[in-house]
Amino acid sequence: MNLTLNVYHDVRRGGRNYMEDVIAIVTHIGDQSEPYSHPFVCFLVFDGHGGVEAAKFSEENLLNEIKAQEGFNSDDDELVVEAIKKGFLSTHQSMWKVIGTWPKTQHGLPSTSGTTASMVLIRKGKLYVAHVGDSTVMLAEQGDCGLTWKARVLTTDHKPDLPKERQRIEMSGGEVMLKSGVPRVVWRRERSIKLPNKKVSSKDCVPFLAVARSLGDLWSYNESTEMYSVSPEPDVSVHNIDLSQLKCLILASDGLWNVLSATETIKIVMKSLNATHQSQLKNDSFSWLNIDPAMALIDVVMAKCRDRYLRADNTSVIVVLFE
Predict the structure, then answer these.
(1) Residue 236 bridge partners (DSSP)
(2) pLDDT tens across 231-282, in order?
(3) What positions does the domain PPM-type phosphatase occupy (predicted)?
(4) Whole-number Å distance between alpha carbons of 158 and 132
(5) What is the pLDDT of residues 282-323, one digit of tens each?
(6) Which residues are registered as beta bridge partners of 27?
(7) Of 24, 153, 198, 208, which one has the fewest beta carbons inside 10 Å?
(8) What pLDDT digit, counting tens, does each position of 91-119 carry?
(9) What is the 3-state secondary structure (H, E, C) of the chain?
């Protein structure tokens, strides 16, 4: 299958003092002399937390780890899916080798850096979708009468309060607690208490992370169960490409999805593509200055946050249009 893809991307720091999002777009032409000879294109979004180190490490290593797995170049979808899963786990485990070089926490403890990871691999007429965390992946497909697009969300956010995730966290020896109404995975953090003539060690239970799966977050490893409360194992799915229905693919960090719904996102993309025929969206204040849908999406996110007196999060978007 020959595909023509128009790819747009944008990344904004928002109202934060630092940027922890990372994106990557990788193309492989194909070469019979290489072990992964099938042509492919891969889109990746990483939303880091606790520092950008885990996101950058994943951007540099995840796809290479996946390609190195036996079965990656197979025509058998099950083998490709298994290679993707192993690549995620291998990337995660490799972080133990470098965590000592990452900045320590303000308490002098090892880095708590981690990252969501969402990946779409397009190869041989199929989409291979893998993710940990809450950087959602969505398709826009042909709607009724060909006049509209409809949303199909391909990923389920890994949140600690989901029954499946909470059960896994508790089985790993972890715990979920609320902080300001948000369910978070608990970090049992080492603490030293100085008493006269001695020092006593204890652990603070800190409601820490609002996602249940990620790459990194090595603090969540439980030695007694030999499991991670914050799991690095991705969900992976495979989808056939039907060009009569598929219009676009959107990957984004939660800086976008916390502000816009899937339906709103599709409408903005459609309107941005018709920007030469309109100067404003009806009944709002957002002016369309270009036809880049990724920029248009983040422009709206930033404007909505300003209008609501909210601090915008780091926001990253990749929009892929199919022709």
Answers:
(1) 130
(2) 999 999 999 999 989 999 999 999 999 999 999 999 999 988 876 445 444 5
(3) 4-322
(4) 7
(5) 545 444 445 799 999 999 999 999 999 999 999 999 999 997
(6) 41
(7) 198
(8) 999 999 999 999 999 888 999 999 999 99
(9) CCCCEEEEEEEECCCCCCCCEEEEEEEECCCCCCCCCCCEEEEEEEEEECCCHHHHHHHHHHHHHHHCCCCCCCCCHHHHHHHHHHHHHHHHHHHHHCHHHCCCCCCCCCCCCEECEEEEEEECCEEEEEEECCCCEEEEEECHHHCCEEEEECCCCCCCCCHHHHHHHHHCCCCEEEECCEEEEEEEEEEEEEECCEEEEEEEEEEEECCCECEECHHHEECCCCEECCECCCEEEEEECCCCCEEEEEEECHHHHCCCCHHHHHHHHHHHHCHHHCCECCCCCCECCCCCHHHHHHHHHHHHHHHCCCCCCCEEEEEEEEC
What the block records as the tokens of 97 is: 């080798």
- Which residue has 């796809």 as its token pair? 63
Which amino acid, one-letter code, is at 128?
Y
Query: Domain limits of the chain?
Result: 5-322
Nearest-CA neighbor of 221 among 112, 106, 62? 112
